[in-house]
Write a structure and sequence with these properties.
There is one protein chain. The chain has 9 helices and 9 strands. It is of the alpha/beta class and about 240 residues long. Helix 2 crosses helix 3.
């Protein structure tokens, strides 16, 4: 068995376990497992890992940083030219990177300010004009569940204003809400707050149905509280990263 075949087998085994865990959590919550999308977080992993995941039927891939994500998207397209990957940016995004990310990302899950939204809209317009993308950029509002400005996320009281602005944009499509459970807060308590914020968001924006919540350590709790998208890195790809991320 070659190294590549061994790695594919390793990823396949991990994928079976992750999908089984999602299904178990969904059924425990009285939900259909098919309602929950698996987002494979490939940050610090080589492009070959991402390509091997597409061989296994995983086409939603996520990155934390624009620079790594843009380069990896190009490399995966070279490795698997026949495959249509849907790329998501899930990490904090600086406004000066908005134009670049608009060229390769299908969705940005970490929109937490009006100024970032405006920068992304300008980036999308430029990318459409240059032929680098054909349509709007899907976005999620990132909610801050503890109000800590250093962790990213929009304060809950400001979410309606941010969501209204996104919904009015011709370059951005509001799809839902994302959050990370704060350190030191029980996941159940954090995701209960998020569920309430998601309910309020959908009242004004019925199309915003995505709730992106839950990672390797807390996806079971997130699913119990309504998550429709879990972001899994370590449980799927292991703790191994690139030699020089």
């Amino acid at each position: 068995m070659t190294d590549q075949e061994a790695r594919r087998a390793e990823l396949a085994d991990a994928l079976v376990l992750v999908r089984a865990r999602i299904a178990t959590a969904a059924r425990a919550a009285g939900r259909d497992p098919s309602e929950i999308r698996l987002l494979a977080v490939t940050k610090t992993r080589p492009a070959l890992d991402a390509a091997l995941l597409t061989d296994l039927g995983v086409f939603d891939l996520a990155e934390n940083r624009e620079q790594e994500g843009g380069a990896k998207a190009l490399e995966v397209a070279r490795l698997r030219p026949e495959v249509r990957v849907r790329w998501h940016l899930v990490g904090r995004l600086q406004r000066n990177k908005a134009r670049a990310v608009a060229r390769w990302a299908d969705e940005v899950q970490s929109v937490d300010s009006v100024r970032l939204a405006e920068a992304l809209a300008r980036g999308v317009a430029a990318a459409r004009e240059s032929g680098d993308r054909a349509g709007p950029l899907d976005v999620l509002v990132q909610a801050s569940l503890d109000g800590d400005p250093d962790r990213g996320g929009c304060p809950l009281e400001l979410l309606p204003t941010l969501a209204d602005g996104l919904a009015r944009s011709g370059e951005l499509s509001l799809r839902g809400i994302m959050a990370v459970a704060p350190l030191g807060v029980a996941p159940d308590a954090a995701f209960e707050i998020l569920a309430g914020a998601a309910d309020r968001l959908r009242k004004d924006h019925p199309e915003a149905t995505v709730i992106s919540a839950g990672m390797t350590d807390d996806l079971d709790s997130a699913i119990a509280h309504g998550s429709t998208c879990v972001r899994v890195g370590t449980a799927l790809l292991g703790a191994r990263g690139l030699a020089s991320p």
